[in-house]
Amino acid sequence: MTDMLANASAWLDRQRAGNLAQTVTYGRGALTVELAATAGQSDHDVEAGEGYIETVRTVDFLLTAEDLLLGGEAVEPEPGDRIAWRDDTYEVLPPGNERCFRFTDPHETTIRVHTKRVEAA
Predict the structure, then answer these.
(1) pTM for the whole thing?
(2) Where are the domains of the chain?
(3) How far apart are CA 35 and CA 16, in angstroms?
(4) CA-CA distance, 22 to 6, in Å (whole number)?
(5) pLDDT truncated to tens, each residue of the chain (121 aa)?
(6) DSSP-derived pairing of the beta strands 110-119 and 88-92
(7) Could you say which DSSP state residue 19 is in?
(8) What is the rounded CA–CA span in Å between residue 96 and residue 28?
(9) Which of 39, 49, 63, 121 could form a disulfide with 87 if both were Cys (CB 3.0 to 4.6 A apart)?
(10) Hey, which CATH number is domain 4-119, 2.40.10, 2.60.40, 3.40.710, 3.30.420?
């Protein structure tokens, strides 16, 4: 029996990548790949010490998980990876104690990568 929810997640991701995305260059060291990504943002509550909470905003990129191939191998985002978009460079980083990415669906079709702009044009 087919998994209707997995099929729906894949269909939604194809619609996002085909209609709401731009080409970015994802890189780790000398390895790079061009792929379709949708830019967004997220707010994260991060402990700032002495019981204070600070809100940190990240620039996020939604990527199709199976498109994230470096050196022909499927990878997951890691802190320090770079994304070049619109003449700016963004570094993958974890906000506070969170991971630097999360899957947006239970079928791990789409990845939301948290970044910070580190170089502006």
Answers:
(1) 0.89
(2) 4-119
(3) 13
(4) 24
(5) 678 988 998 999 999 999 999 999 999 999 999 999 999 999 999 888 888 999 999 999 999 999 999 999 999 999 999 999 999 999 999 998 899 999 999 999 999 999 999 988 7
(6) antiparallel
(7) H
(8) 22
(9) 121
(10) 2.40.10
